[in-house]
Amino acid sequence: MATQRMTQTALVRALAEAGEITNKQARTVLDTLSGLAVSEVKKNGLFVLPGIGRLVRVDRKARMGRNPSTGESIKIPAKKVVKFRVAKAAKDAIVPAKPAKASKAAKKAKE
Q: Containing domain of residue 16, as a range?
């Protein structure tokens, strides 16, 4: 069963309803937020969305790789990449953490 993802238009409508603003104003808010995220990551290497997560610029080191079709070793140059790290609060809200298992020593102490 395929699930439908939220489209940009649906997101704008939801923001407009929640903030009691027009769709045009909600679109401006969304565009400003995404532009701000890009510029902050470019400038400082970090952009935080409280309660959701953070965009982080990471420097990858040069490394050796392998061409899958020929098997030849190739040098992969260093580069910068952007990663999104989900906040613990959001992660726990979406996928609740499993309760910690009691250690064997704790079980014996109870007996």
A: 7-40
Predicted confidence (pLDDT) per residue in 46-99, tens digit? 999 999 999 999 999 999 999 999 999 999 999 999 999 999 999 999 998 787
Tokens of 76: 């992969």
Q: What is the gyration radius of the CA atoms in the chain, in angstroms?
A: 22
pLDDT digits (tens, 9 = 90+) for 10-32: 999 999 999 999 999 999 999 99
Count of structural domains within the chain: 2
Whole-angstrom CA distances from 108 to 99, 101, 103 are 19, 14, 9
In a domain, residue 67? The reply is yes
| Spatial separation of the C-alpha atoms in residues 64 and 71, rounded to whole Å | 12
Indicate whether 83 belongs to any domain: yes
CA angle 107, 108, 111 (to 5 degrees): 95
